[in-house]
């Protein structure tokens, strides 16, 4: 459980409260872009540095910011805070035959998350990031993982995740170690959002993109 008095950081709590006050009634936080040092730093484990009220306000604002972007995940470093906290949420699309294996992922707060691959199977699909606006690239990730995290109350969770939800969890957890998806992406696959929509979005499996742009999947 969080809330140990020794971990509470009054100065940091005040900083976060001020940031939330500046976000206004809509509670939309600025999303930092590549080049900001916080995106390349190891996030500090969360041990109760914030008052419960501040933490809840921060999580609410992070969810609002994620949905407005729109996105399916947002890590605290993406709003300028080097804490091991992220929020994730995604929902089933209309296309039942989508090979990305998108599945229902209810809103979830993941604190101090980690993951381990299950087996050796991977999948390569286009992926984007709210901190690298306007571009996407093909990233290979584990198809199945064991995801571990703590919730906002400090309770520990462990769950098998598969397909697209597993990809989202990996993406956001990697942010907390200073990694961005482009670090291990097929760099020749890099595409603007407009060109992805025009040339490659018709087929989620990037087979044609790999042939035309000169990368392997």
From TrEMBL:
For Fe cation, which residues are the binding ones? 129, 171, 175
Concerning InterPro entries, the annotation shows:
Peptide_deformylase (IPR023635), Peptide_deformylase_sf (IPR036821)
Q: Give the UniProt keywords, A-Z.
A: Hydrolase, Iron, Metal-binding, Protein biosynthesis
**Enzyme Commission number(s) from the entry:** 3.5.1.88
Residues at the catalytic site = 172
Names of the cofactor(s)? Fe(2+)
Pfam families the record matches: Pep_deformylase
The answer on whether this UniProt entry bears the keyword Membrane reads no
Source organism, top-level taxon: Bacteria
- Entry cofactor note text? Binds 1 Fe(2+) ion.
What residues form the membrane-spanning segments? none
Name the catalysed reactions.
Answer: N-terminal N-formyl-L-methionyl-[peptide] + H2O = N-terminal L-methionyl-[peptide] + formate
Tell me its family.
Answer: Belongs to the polypeptide deformylase family.
What this chain does, per the record? Removes the formyl group from the N-terminal Met of newly synthesized proteins. Requires at least a dipeptide for an efficient rate of reaction. N-terminal L-methionine is a prerequisite for activity but the enzyme has broad specificity at other positions.
Q: What is this protein called?
A: Peptide deformylase
What organism, scientifically named, is this protein from?
A: Bifidobacterium choladohabitans
Q: Upper taxonomic classification of the species?
A: Bacteria, Bacillati, Actinomycetota, Actinomycetes, Bifidobacteriales
């Amino acid at each position: 459980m969080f809330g140990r008095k020794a971990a509470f950081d009054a100065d940091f709590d005040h900083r976060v409260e001020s940031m939330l006050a500046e976000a206004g009634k809509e509670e939309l936080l600025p999303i930092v872009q590549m080049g900001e040092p916080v995106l390349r730093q190891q996030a500090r484990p969360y041990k109760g540095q914030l008052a419960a009220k501040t933490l809840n306000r921060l999580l609410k604002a992070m969810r609002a910011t994620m949905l407005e972007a729109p996105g399916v995940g947002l890590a605290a470093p993406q709003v300028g805070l080097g804490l091991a906290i992220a929020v994730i949420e995604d929902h089933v699309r209309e296309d039942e035959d989508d090979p990305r294996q998108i599945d229902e992922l209810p809103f979830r707060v993941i604190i101090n998350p980690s993951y381990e691959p299950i087996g050796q199977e991977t999948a390569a699909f286009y992926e984007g990031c709210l901190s690298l606006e306007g571009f996407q690239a093909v990233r290979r990730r584990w198809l199945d993982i064991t995801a571990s995290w703590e919730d906002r109350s400090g309770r520990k969770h462990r769950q098998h995740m598969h397909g697209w939800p597993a990809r989202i969890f990996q993406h956001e957890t990697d942010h907390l170690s200073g990694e961005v998806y482009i670090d291990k992406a097929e760099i020749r696959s890099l595409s603007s959002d407009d060109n992805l929509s025009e040339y490659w979005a018709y087929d989620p499996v990037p087979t044609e993109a790999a042939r035309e742009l000169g990368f392997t999947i």
